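Problem: given the chain below (353 residues), write out its structure.
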Amino acid sequence: MKKLEVGILGATGMVGQRFVSLLENHPWFELTWLAASDRSAGKAYSEACSWRLREPMPERARPLRVQECKPVAQAGRIPQLLFSSLDSRVAGEVEQEFARAGHVVVSNSSNYRMDPDVPLLIPEVNPDHLALVRVQRQGRGWKGMIVTNPNCTTVGLVMSLAPLEKAFGLDKVLMTSMQAVSGAGYPGVPTLDILGNVIPHIAGEEEKVERETQKLLGKLADGRVDPGNFAVSAHCNRVLVEDGHMESVSVALKSKASVEDLLAAWRAFQSVPQQRKLPSAPAHPIVVREEKDRPQPKFYLHAEGGMATVVGRVRSCPVLQFKYMALSHNTIRGAAGAALLNAELMKSEGYLD
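Solution.
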């Protein structure tokens, strides 16, 4: 099968680097085009990018010439499929320009997530929401499209909630996060602010988690998504961990269940990506650990290549009904890996033909 050429908007940042790494040797996609800020444009990627990942920079990416983030004739053809890791301060205008020019933009940025005609996707949870692109194209009059993945904190929460919503129904959800410093990008949180400290505020994060959770677990009907019929409350904290977002979750369900029922629902959870064997899909989207002190980022951050949500410490809750811990990799499943899986779903559905 001939590989589909792809590009990256915002290629030099932390998430952009993760895209470059994950696309190395991808069976369906071939990275041929990179774009970043004006100060990087014109340079070889190896010169423009201060590489921060533990994995070495892929050799194929090193000589690629960084372009401007503009959908105009440039050196080399701009691929139809573009992954965006642009900062939200510029993503709105740039992504719209590329979609209007006929490109498929698979975005990690927050700008369009809550637009009613833009799919906000977790392929295991709501693959049917991809149909919103038809509404988007008709309403906005463009041939391209914008498809988004959720906030890095939302992903782990919703992955753990989806089997519970399907089996028992959700009534109330309370989540407190302990979020890694890499979630703030590079150079991120100043050392003197985070060292020996916990910062109990991440601007806009709690609102994103609450709104996105209800959209992701909502129902698609008549070209729109009706939000999930349950309450969500989030409290987000930055902690001194390099990678991996931990979440303390309490839930009240609409029907009776036991701890064993929750464990069974998580273990049985499979969906479209697993059925179609999409390249980036984890074989087990939810990994259950029953040890009393698991999960921990130190041991389970890279479960299923960083694409799984790891749950543990499941027990009864005297305030709500059940409580548990969830762990996910914030720059893989919570960012670049999520967008890559979205693109694989789109290809399997024929949206990239």
